[in-house]
């Protein structure tokens, strides 16, 4: 006896796919900005480089803006994918741990794609 998965309405699929794409982009941007920020902080405070280029002083602000966008996009995806609060909180926390946003993005992409049959 085989069970067929429930059919997802095409408009809902599209809404989830759009939210997932925006979330993925924001996760990658946030992850790259965080790695840049960590590198700058290591150079300035760990290695003692006092003459950091002017553009490098803006990395923290850029990461802050990217992280806010990441939080909003993960909230929107969480609402559309009907995540439990703990799932959203762990996803949100991934934006402040270096490299973790890349792994969580891949995991959430896989979960949401399977649940909403986005690959078919």
Describe this protein's structure:
It is found in: Cell membrane. It is a multi-pass membrane protein. This protein has 120 residues and is an all-alpha fold. The chain has helices at residues 10-46, 59-81, 85-93, 100-115. The chain has one domain (10-115). It has 4 helices and no strands. Helix 1 runs antiparallel to helix 4 and helix 2 (59-81) runs antiparallel to helix 3 (85-93). The longest helix has 37 residues, at 10-46. The model has no long low-confidence stretch (mean pLDDT 91).
In short:
Residues 20-109 form the DUF3817 domain. This protein is mainly α and 120 residues long.
Annotation keywords:
DUF3817_TM; 120 residues; cell membrane; elongated; membrane; mainly alpha
């Amino acid at each position: 006896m085989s069970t067929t998965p429930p059919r997802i309405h095409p408009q809902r699929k599209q809404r989830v796919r759009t939210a997932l794409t925006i979330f993925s982009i924001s996760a990658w941007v946030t992850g790259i900005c965080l790695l840049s920020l960590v590198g700058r902080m290591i150079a300035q405070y760990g290695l003692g480089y006092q003459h950091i280029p002017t553009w490098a002083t803006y990395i923290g602000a850029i990461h802050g803006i990217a992280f806010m966008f990441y939080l909003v996009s993960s909230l929107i995806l969480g609402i559309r994918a009907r995540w439990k609060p703990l799932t959203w909180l762990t996803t949100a926390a991934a934006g402040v741990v270096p490299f973790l946003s890349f792994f969580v993005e891949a995991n959430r992409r896989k979960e949401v794609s399977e649940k909403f049959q986005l690959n078919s």
